[in-house]
């Protein structure tokens, strides 16, 4: 919400001629990662408030901002596709390229009712799929976490590593060793952890682990000492009481679902990230939380006849992908 007023100031600088479009870009539009939607919202606000654009030049300036943001989005997608192909992930690159663009028709095999759905790639590097995954995880784990007692949020770190795959395996192994120590078995009953892997300022992988647990109090100095003994090189830890479960779970999963594509592309790390972590689980329950995931198994029934047998057809080509596909779940209805 705060992007709109600041973006308005920048656009006004273009309109009143006090600065050029390139200068405005340099002072922050790119760094803010403003979306086309914010620019369009600002344009709608202008019309709503009765502030009319007086000249074609002013209108062109606003359109330039929109076009520039659209160009950046397109360029980012192109770079992701190239990074995926560079590590031999051609199928994933094709899926990402058509994510949100390809439309499929779910056609009821009983009555012929047609329901349109968009294709989604479900890759970590896809922003829209990442947002959807965050909401799904929060809904899936909220009730389970509330049932395991008083919650605390913990962060464990490693020194930056060269090999991402080795770093993820090390921190997962160290976390398992920590939980299995006698002192922690009696204090950590169960919870949910997520592994985050951004690129550090030194160009190495900054692998660290967040987890929410239900259980007893653990002094931070004690946790730091034990973590250093297990890892051999790191004692940077943080532990605090959870005040809001939804907020903590969102914070926990957002970094596992959200990838800083721009930074990884700039550092040439995106291909390595995808190849090392493809099909690797970065969010995992443990202890008493195992088996407490809330799963929506509601069937997506035909609104016309109530059946659940579908034919999946590419809307553009008419190609039949699946025929007689039974028992599609409700979560598949907006995202095939």
CATH class annotation of the largest domain:
Alpha Beta
Mean pLDDT comes to 79
Question: What spatial form do the alpha-carbon principal axes imply?
Answer: flat
Number of beta-strand segments: 9
> Which oligomeric form is depicted?
single chain
Radius of gyration: 24 Å
> What is the N-to-C order of secondary-structure elements (H for helix, E for strand)?
HHHHHEEHEHHEEHEHHHEEE
How many independent structural domains? 3
Straight-line distance between termini: 30 Å
Care to give the gist of this entry?
This protein is α+β, with helices and mostly antiparallel strands. It has helices at residues 3-15, 21-32, 36-48, 56-86, 90-97, 127-146, 164-180, 182-185, 220-231, 245-257, 261-266, 270-277; strands at 103-108, 114-118, 151-157, 188-196, 208-215, 237-241, 283-287, 309-314, 320-326. The strands form 2 sheets. Strands 6-3-5-4-7 form a 5-stranded antiparallel sheet, sandwiched between helices. Strands 2-1-8-9 form a 4-stranded antiparallel sheet, with no helix packed on it.
Report on the structure:
- A hairpin with a 5-residue loop joins strand 8 (309-314) and strand 9 (320-326).
- The strands form two sheets. A five-stranded antiparallel β-sheet has the order 6-3-5-4-7, sandwiched between helices. A four-stranded antiparallel β-sheet has the order 2-1-8-9, with no helix packed on it.
- It has 336 residues and is α+β, with helices and mostly antiparallel strands.
- The two termini are 30 Å apart.
- It is flat and about 65 Å long.
- 47% of the residues lie in helices and 17% in strands.
- It folds into three domains: 3-86, no CATH class; 103-122 and 297-332, no CATH class; 148-287, Alpha-Beta Plaits, CATH 3.30.70.
- Residues 1-5, 24-36, 46-55 and 332-336 have low confidence and may be disordered.
